[in-house]
Design brief:
Blueprint lengths: L1 H17 L4 E11 L4 E10 L7 E9 L6 E14 L3 E13 L6 E12 L5 E11 L3 E13 L4 E14 L6 E14 L1
Antiparallel strand pairs: 1-2, 1-10, 2-3, 3-4, 4-5, 5-6, 6-7, 7-8, 8-9, 9-10
């Protein structure tokens, strides 16, 4: 019995060392906005093989604005619903924090849907929807674009991002930020 358990553990260990245990994605984007000055975004994702534990992601965006900058951070867990050569779909939930404006200083619960068509190909297409809402504010953040492979794990990406914020508190303010994006995406 001990030999069987030892042999099973040895086979399991050798299989795990050959498999992809941890995956990572990261990127930087420049966001050309019409009325909100310079903007940039950075993100990172960690994927693992543990079945019930969600993968983790973090994205931060900074806008200079017209004398009144705006920062937001998305932190969320997600699951890969589909992952094949044609399409990759992730669904998740987390928190969206807005800061840096007299109208916005909120942390909202958020849902996330992320899709990529032809992942790992020389040219792929992506889309992402983040929707966050609480009693005082609503945020919708949509982006879509294309990725062009430079090296085995490095891609140039270009697209469009539309970010809409509304507050329902006493200030009752809304703002829409939109424009073209360009950046670098790494998928290991």
């Amino acid at each position: 019995m001990k030999k069987t358990i030892s042999l099973s553990l040895l086979l399991l260990t050798s299989t795990l060392t050959q498999a992809d245990i941890i995956g990572a994605k990261a990127g930087l984007d420049y966001w050309h906005t019409k009325d909100h000055g310079k903007a940039g975004s950075a993100y990172a994702q960690i994927e693992h093989p543990v079945p019930l534990l969600p993968n983790a992601a973090l994205r931060a965006t900074t806008l200079e604005g017209d004398g009144d900058g705006l920062n937001n951070v998305d932190a969320y867990g997600y699951y890969e619903i589909l992952d094949n050569d044609l399409v990759s779909v992730d669904l998740g939930a987390g928190l969206h924090h807005i800061n840096g404006s007299r109208y916005y200083d909120e942390t909202l619960p958020m849902v996330v849907a992320d899709a990529e068509w032809f992942p790992g190909s020389r040219i792929s297409y992506y889309s992402k929807l983040n929707y966050a809402k609480n009693a005082d504010a609503t945020v919708t953040d949509i982006s879509a674009g294309a990725r062009f492979q430079l090296l085995s794990a490095i891609y140039l990406q270009a697209g469009y991002r539309h970010y809409d914020m509304k507050t329902d508190n006493g200030n009752g303010h809304s703002d829409t930020i939109k424009g073209l994006t360009a950046g670098l995406h790494i998928d290991m």
